[in-house]
Amino acid sequence: MNALWRWKMVFCLSVILLVSNLADGEKIPKGLHIERNRWTGFNRTIRDGTGQYWYIQRYLSVYGGINNIYAGGLQCYVDGTVVNSNGRGWINSAGDEIEIGPYRRNGYEVYRRCKVYRDRCLARWMDIFISKSAQRKRIKVRVYSNYNRPITQVITSSGNNKVSANDWAFITNHSGTAIAHIIRRKTSPFRASVSGANANSRRIYVDYTLDLPPYGIAIICYFESGSTIPDNLKEMLKKFDPRSAMKDLPAEVRRLIINFREGSAAGEVFLIRNSRNDIVYLKNNDSISGTIMNKEYIIKTFFGQVKLPAEKVIGLATVPKRENTVRVVVKNGEIISGELTDPVIKLVLPIGGVLQIPIEKIRQCSYKISKDKPEQMPNTDSLVMLETGDVLAIEDDDLHLQLQRRSGKVELKSPYLREIFIKTEKNDV
Predict the structure, then answer these.
(1) Which residues contact 312 (CB under 8 A, 6 or more apart)?
(2) Which of 63, 320, 365, 423 qualifies as a FRET site for 159, CA 20 to 30 Å off?
(3) Nearest to residue 99, comparing CAs of 189, 164, 34?
(4) 386: closest CA among 20, 64, 94?
(5) CA atoms within 13 A on the CB side of 369
(6) Secondary structure letter of residue 191 according to DSSP
(7) Residue 338 exposed, middle or buried by CB count within 10 Å (0-12, 13-18, 19+)
(8) 116: which residues sit within 8 A by CB, 6+ positions away?
(9) Closest by Cα among 145, 111, 319, 144 to 219
(10) Is 207 helix (H, G, I), strand (E, B) or coil?
(11) What is the residue-level pLDDT of the chain in tens, covering all 429 positions?
């Protein structure tokens, strides 16, 4: 790998290593909120497809459910305070989904949506975060559930009897009434920390850390289902299809769900991809499928000009409010941002003919999912994310970090590092 792809650097804690979710200045997409034409008070009762009643409370928490198992389930806390409503919320025309909000915090707003499925025993919660600040926000999100009966058994998606970061779902058995908790997509890199899911406990805590970009939008989603037969839930998890469970949501909303994303995410760039065609999404919300014919991308960056061959590129996205600036996602997880020297995407249409689309008309474009460009890109290199949004691969052997503590300097070796977060302009970490 040449010098354009591997960056030999010596750092003194001047970079930020984060995985965020959305580019700055994103507009609120259609379908982010349910329609605003019907109010509902609380408590509200919704019946699922198996005849079980879910009693929705003012926090959009739940009581009842299968065999009256919930005693205040799925409450959401942000930075230590519970997301609340003014005693009423919006309900959709089908009567199966409710939304509350905004719950305003320092620099961001939170909305909650809860949907009870009429075709099965399943409920979905979506916590929507909208930044109102020019500053990046790191938000502690906790989903807390209380149950009427203690846990007698724990079954995890990894097969262990204790929930770990590798689990995307787990089942808790409460003396014959079992609950399946689906906390992320199987392949999602966005992980949660689970506590309380052990024998004799009546409370479960699912903790996420959310990095919300300036003026960005992000959604955390989770599902719960119940049964009197734990093995039925095990089979349900094997067959659970997030795309089917979220088919009621527009693609522009689904791509904001950071723990159930359908495409490929890297840094602050999210690309919507499929396995059929390359695709270009325009700023007017139209999309065009075909085959991208660009041979290379030459980018003027703040650190010089970079030439990226097309076979190494997954796709690119333009930056809102920054004309001609793009973020190009590379197969090894890098993101290179800057201006294209040739700001045109050449697209061959399936019916024939070539479109030359100016970059100022494009929101994003991406190559199709293939063996050479898979949906999930394995990170084989160590990466750093700069404040510019660039993500660069580095040589581990040349990464030397020193942390100044009150007791003296500490040498940090790369094999022991997972993440570095720069808290202030003074480089406190």
Answers:
(1) 5, 330, 331, 332
(2) 63
(3) 34
(4) 20
(5) 13
(6) -
(7) buried
(8) 46, 47, 48, 54, 56, 96, 97, 122, 123
(9) 111
(10) strand
(11) 444 444 433 332 222 223 333 434 446 888 999 999 999 999 899 999 988 889 999 899 998 888 889 999 999 999 999 999 988 999 999 999 999 999 999 999 999 999 999 999 999 999 999 999 888 889 999 999 999 999 999 999 998 889 998 899 999 999 999 999 999 988 777 889 999 999 999 999 999 999 888 888 999 999 999 998 889 999 999 999 898 899 899 877 888 899 987 544 445 577 878 888 999 988 887 889 999 999 999 999 988 899 999 999 999 988 876 767 898 999 887 888 899 999 999 999 999 899 999 999 998 999 998 988 887 666 666 667 676 667 777 666 666 677 777 777 877 766 656 555 554 444 444
For Cα atoms 268, 3, 367, give the angle at the middle one, nearest 5 degrees: 45
Other Cβ atoms within 10 Å of 137 Cβ, number? 21
CA distances in angstroms from 406 to 403, 420, 426, listed in the order given: 10, 18, 15
Q: What is the pTM of this model?
A: 0.62
Interatomic CA distance for residues 324 and 321, integer angstroms:
9
Give yes or no for a contact between 224 and 147, defined as CB atoms under 8 angstroms apart: no
- Residue of 213, 216, 210, 165 lying closest to 191 (CA atoms): 165
Please name which of 219, 214, 173 lies closest in space to residue 33, comparing C-alpha atoms: 219
Q: Residue 267 carries which DSSP code?
A: T
Q: How many CB atoms lie within 10 A of CB 204?
A: 23
Beta bridge partners of 182: 169, 223
1: which 2 tokens? 């790998």
Give the span between the Cα atoms of 129 and 214, in whole angstroms: 11
Joined together, the tokens standing for residue 294 give 């660009």
Residues in the chain: 429
- How many Cβ atoms sit within 10 Å of the Cβ of residue 34? 19
